[in-house]
Structure formats: C-alpha cells, structure tokens
Design a protein that fits this description.
Helix content: 40-55%
Radius of gyration: 18 Å
Strand content: 5-15%
CATH superfamily of the largest domain: Response regulator
Strand order of the largest sheet: 2-1-3-4-5-6
Number of strands: 6
Order of helices and strands: EHEHEHEHEHEHHHHH
Distance between the termini: 30 Å
CATH topology of the largest domain: Rossmann fold
Shape: globular
Length: about 220
C-alpha cells in the first residue's frame, strides 16, 4: 500500500484528489495540508511514501521550499510536484530541490496515478514534453561548450553502470550484462554516486536524463 499526503491550498482540489486516489486498492491518502508548513508537519508525523505537493501556495511556505526541506528531512519520501505551471523555470527548480516527479494538473488521471506509483518505487517521473525539454537543454549546453564537467571524469565502465542503473536494472542484471561481479557493480555505483554528488536513485535517474543517457519515445 502506497501512503500519500496531499498538499494543496485549494480544498476542492484536495477533495477531488482524495476521491480519485481512495478508489485505488494500492493507494491510501493518510493526510492533507493546505500549505507548505502544514505539509512538512504532516509528513514528519506520518512519514508517507509520497507527498503530492502543489507548487504555488500563497500562504506559508511554497511547494518548492517545502519540497527542499522535506527532501533533506525525509529522503525516503518521494515528492511529486503537482502544478498548473508548464514552465521550464519551475521544472528545473523542482528538480534542483529534489522532487522525484513533476506532473501537470491538466494531466489525465491515468498519468497522475502512474506518476505516483513510479516515484513510490524509487523512480523519477517527468511528463513527456518536460523530458524532451530537459534533453534539449542538455543539447543546447553541449552546443555552447558548457558540457565539460565532472561527468567526463567517469570511466567508461562507470558510465555504463550509471546508464543501466538509471534504466532500472538491478545490480545482478547489470553484472550479467557487463560480465562483472555484483560486488564490482556495487563498487562502480558507489564511485559514481560519490563523484556526481548524488544520494539516491531518483537523483541518479534525473541526472541521466539531463545528460541525455536515457531515451524516451
């Protein structure tokens, strides 16, 4: 069962989301909050698997500030930003503060449900056009000569492990594909995370997307 807290300043939005999610056998809404401050308090008290966080809330902390604080305090809780803003600045800021996913309020119900289940199991989720924009941003940076960074210090094997991990392969599967031991995979993965300053698999996935290592239809 995936436990969820809904943080949104509109009571009707919270009510609608609760009705949608409560009808699913694998989802449970355990709490609600009307602003970022209350959302942090409820998350600290209830320790949910997922926090559905509105990005723009006029009172108390906004969604981005709350997400950053929650990501630091509860790294095992996935934060899924739910917003009306189809805007690059908000998207990149959400990724920067550690959100595991970003979904538009105009998205179909099926997409929201898929996003919740995805981030709950440790994956990252971005709606399709957002993924394309991230990839385009990376390409633009490369074309401007801004692509030289710590990524270039990774060995060829470390880059392979990074890509396969981001694609969802388990350590044993990676070991079989690369004809190395599981222990060696774990060592490479640890080195990659340390070099890139990453702390979790969702961060690794988002990094791989920005680097153009993952390809989406």
């Amino acid at each position: 069962m995936i436990s969820i807290i809904i943080v949104d300043d509109h009571a009707m939005v919270r009510s609608g989301l609760r009705m949608l999610l409560s009808g699913k056998e694998d989802l449970e809404v355990v709490g609600e909050a009307s602003d970022g401050d209350e959302g942090i308090q409820e998350a600290m008290r209830l320790r949910p698997n997922v926090v559905l966080m509105d990005l723009s809330m006029p009172h108390g902390k906004d969604g981005l500030t709350a997400a950053e604080e929650l990501n630091a305090a509860l790294p095992d809780t996935a934060i899924l930003m739910l917003t009306m803003h189809d805007d690059d600045e908000y998207l990149f800021r959400a990724i920067h503060v550690g959100a595991s996913g970003y979904v538009l309020k105009s998205a179909p119900h099926e997409e929201l449900l898929a996003a919740i289940r995805s981030v709950a199991k440790g994956d990252a989720y971005l709606y399709p056009t957002a993924t394309k924009r991230l990839m385009n941003e990376y390409i633009d940076r490369m074309n401007r000569g801004e692509g030289s960074d710590i990524f270039e210090t990774l060995s060829a094997r470390e880059k392979e492990v990074l890509e396969l991990t981001a694609k969802g392969y388990a350590n044993k599967e990676i070991a079989e594909q690369l004809f190395i031991s599981v222990k060696t995979v774990e060592s490479h993965k640890s080195n990659v995370m340390e070099k890139l300053g990453l702390k979790s698999r969702p961060e690794l996935v988002k990094y791989a997307v920005k680097k153009g290592l993952l390809h989406f239809d």
